[in-house]
Amino acid sequence: MSTARTSARQMGVAVRSVLVLTAALGIVYPLAVTGVGQVAAIHQANGSVVTVNGEDAGSALVGQSFTDADGAALPEWFQSRPSAAGDGYDGGASSGSNLGPTNPDLAAAIDERRAAVSELEGVDPGDVPADALTASSSGLDPHISPEYALLQVDRVAAERELDPVDVRALVESAVEGRRGGVLGEQTVNVLQLNIALLELDT
C-alpha cells in the first residue's frame, strides 16, 4: 500500500510540475519577452520591416532578389548575392547549398555566376568578388561586400543616367562597419542601398 501511495504521490508531483513549467515557459515567458520587445525594440521585434512611401518594401534582415520573372538581373538595381533558399531568399526554406568546395556542381555554378557577373558589370572575371559567386549559409543574407557594391556602380549609374561619382558616394555612405568595431566584415545592405538609390534618382 505504501509503495502504491508513494507512486501516486510522485505521479501527482510530476503532473503538477509539467503543468506549472508549461504555463511558465510556454505562456508567461514568451508573453513577457514579447512585451519587452514591443517596448524596448519594436522595429526589430516586428521583423525590421523597411517601408517606402508608406508601403512595406521588405525586411532589413532578409535579402531579396532584384530580378525579372525569368531570374535575369534588373540592371537598374544593385544586385544581391546568390541564394540557395528555395527559389531564392525564401524565408521558409532557409539553407545553404551544403556543397563542398570540390563539388563539381558548385564549381560549375560558380563558373556560371562568374561569367554572368563579368558580362553584366563589364569587368574581368578575375575581378568578381566571392560574395557575388556563393550563397550565404542561411541563403537569406541581405548584405553584400563593399567591393561587390562598388563593382556595380558604373552599371547602375549608366542605367539610371546618374553621375557615377554620386552613386559611388551613395555606396560608400551605406557601408556598415564591423559589429563593435571588431566582429565580422564591412557590409552593405542591398535593400536599403536600393531605397537610397530611389531617393537619389528623384
Measured as a percent range, the helix fraction is 40-55%
What's the pLDDT, averaged over the residues? Answer: 88
- Given as residue ranges, the uncertain stretches (5+ residues, pLDDT < 50) are none
Number of strands: 5
Descriptive keywords:
three-stranded antiparallel beta sheet; ATP binding; 2 domains; two-stranded antiparallel sheet; 49% helix
Describe the structure.
- A hairpin with a 2-residue loop joins strand 1 and strand 2.
- A three-stranded antiparallel beta sheet has the order 3-5-4. It has a two-stranded antiparallel sheet with strand order 1-2.
- It folds into two domains: 41 residues; 154 residues, no CATH class.
- By secondary structure, the chain is mainly alpha-helical.
- The model has no long low-confidence stretch (mean pLDDT 88).
- The chain is built from seven helices and five strands.
- 21% of the residues are buried.
- This is Potassium-transporting ATPase KdpC subunit.
- The system is composed of three essential subunits: KdpA, KdpB and KdpC.
- It is found in: Cell membrane.
- It is a single-pass membrane protein.
- Its main location: membrane.
Concise summary:
With 202 residues, the protein is mainly α. The chain has helices at 2-40, 42-45, 104-121, 146-151, 153-160, 164-174, 190-201; strands at 49-52, 55-59, 143-144, 175-176, 187-189.
